[in-house]
Amino acid sequence: MLKIAIQKSGRLYEQSVQLLKECGIELNNGNRQLKVKAFNFPAEAYFLRDDDIPQYVADSVADVGIVGENVVFEKEKDLNIVSKLGFGRCRLSIAVPKNMNYQGGSDLNGLKIATSYTVLLQKFLTENNLKADIHEISGSVEIAPGIGLADAICDLVSSGSTLFTNNLKEVEVILDSQAVLVANKNLDEENRKILENLLLRINAVKAAKNYKYIMMNAPDHQLKNICALLPGMKSPTIVPLAEKGWSSIQSVVNENDFWEVIEKLKQFEAQGILVVPIEKMIS
């Protein structure tokens, strides 16, 4: 039985549960229980404070956990990051009042910086030969300069709207972060196999989000050009149409290249291009 630690509330909770659901792992946590057994997979979920997840996994109370990289690096536990999950993206940044004439890192010398991330902030200061007074607080870090508690802050930033509302500007990025799956380094053989099965499902879900399935009709004299453009997983699927000289082509396209590929397909006389989302993709 693989024990999975998940944030019980906050920005990663819903996406973590959704990821497991897309992996075919159903958790009935309607009553906000702290421990829930999966119906159709040898796993149970523990719903914990995000700051506690690295400790629980390191201590083998949980086998794996879904948590932000920022928390993993701040807690400094000896864990394996087995998969970057692609959601919960943010950055840990230093922000100063908008009216400060910030010229560079040396302007941080002598300032009082409020943060919940003392380890990462101190590491940044040390690596850049800077000296500042770190003031540790938990929650509502962004109001610290406005009430005279600190000169600057170090906190998580996603859209930047919270900084804007509090008359702050982002000046230094310490860490780019996203949700990751971490694992205890001493898993037994049985749970290691369950984790491998879980990773197979996670990778299939992640791959599907990065690709689109496309179908189209095209004249046969353009097949060579289109096949060169659409390698697919191995090569495109080509089926002759009832109309002589035409074929139906099916393939997958990387999301990052999608519109560029579509434009070139039109140049190669492709017609009736149909784009379909992929639910899972297993290589």
TrEMBL record:
<keyword id="KW-0368">Histidine biosynthesis</keyword>
<dbReference type="Pfam" id="PF08029">
    <property type="entry name" value="HisG_C"/>
</dbReference>
<keyword id="KW-0028">Amino-acid biosynthesis</keyword>
<dbReference type="InterPro" id="IPR001348">
    <property type="entry name" value="ATP_PRibTrfase_HisG"/>
</dbReference>
<dbReference type="InterPro" id="IPR015867">
    <property type="entry name" value="N-reg_PII/ATP_PRibTrfase_C"/>
</dbReference>
<dbReference type="InterPro" id="IPR013820">
    <property type="entry name" value="ATP_PRibTrfase_cat"/>
</dbReference>
<feature type="domain" description="ATP phosphoribosyltransferase catalytic">
    <location>
        <begin position="49"/>
        <end position="203"/>
    </location>
</feature>
<comment type="pathway">
    <text>Amino-acid biosynthesis; L-histidine biosynthesis; L-histidine from 5-phospho-alpha-D-ribose 1-diphosphate: step 1/9.</text>
</comment>
<keyword id="KW-0547">Nucleotide-binding</keyword>
<keyword id="KW-0460">Magnesium</keyword>
<keyword id="KW-0328">Glycosyltransferase</keyword>
<feature type="domain" description="Histidine biosynthesis HisG C-terminal">
    <location>
        <begin position="208"/>
        <end position="280"/>
    </location>
</feature>
<keyword id="KW-0479">Metal-binding</keyword>
<dbReference type="InterPro" id="IPR020621">
    <property type="entry name" value="ATP-PRT_HisG_long"/>
</dbReference>
<dbReference type="GO" id="GO:0000105">
    <property type="term" value="P:L-histidine biosynthetic process"/>
</dbReference>
<dbReference type="Pfam" id="PF01634">
    <property type="entry name" value="HisG"/>
</dbReference>
<keyword id="KW-0808">Transferase</keyword>
<comment type="function">
    <text>Catalyzes the condensation of ATP and 5-phosphoribose 1-diphosphate to form N'-(5'-phosphoribosyl)-ATP (PR-ATP). Has a crucial role in the pathway because the rate of histidine biosynthesis seems to be controlled primarily by regulation of HisG enzymatic activity.</text>
</comment>
<dbReference type="InterPro" id="IPR013115">
    <property type="entry name" value="HisG_C"/>
</dbReference>
<comment type="similarity">
    <text>Belongs to the ATP phosphoribosyltransferase family. Long subfamily.</text>
</comment>
<dbReference type="GO" id="GO:0000287">
    <property type="term" value="F:magnesium ion binding"/>
</dbReference>
<keyword id="KW-0067">ATP-binding</keyword>
<dbReference type="InterPro" id="IPR018198">
    <property type="entry name" value="ATP_PRibTrfase_CS"/>
</dbReference>
<protein>
    <recommendedName>
        <fullName>ATP phosphoribosyltransferase</fullName>
        <ecNumber>2.4.2.17</ecNumber>
    </recommendedName>
</protein>
<dbReference type="InterPro" id="IPR011322">
    <property type="entry name" value="N-reg_PII-like_a/b"/>
</dbReference>
<dbReference type="GO" id="GO:0005524">
    <property type="term" value="F:ATP binding"/>
</dbReference>
<dbReference type="GO" id="GO:0003879">
    <property type="term" value="F:ATP phosphoribosyltransferase activity"/>
</dbReference>
<keyword id="KW-0963">Cytoplasm</keyword>
<dbReference type="GO" id="GO:0005737">
    <property type="term" value="C:cytoplasm"/>
</dbReference>
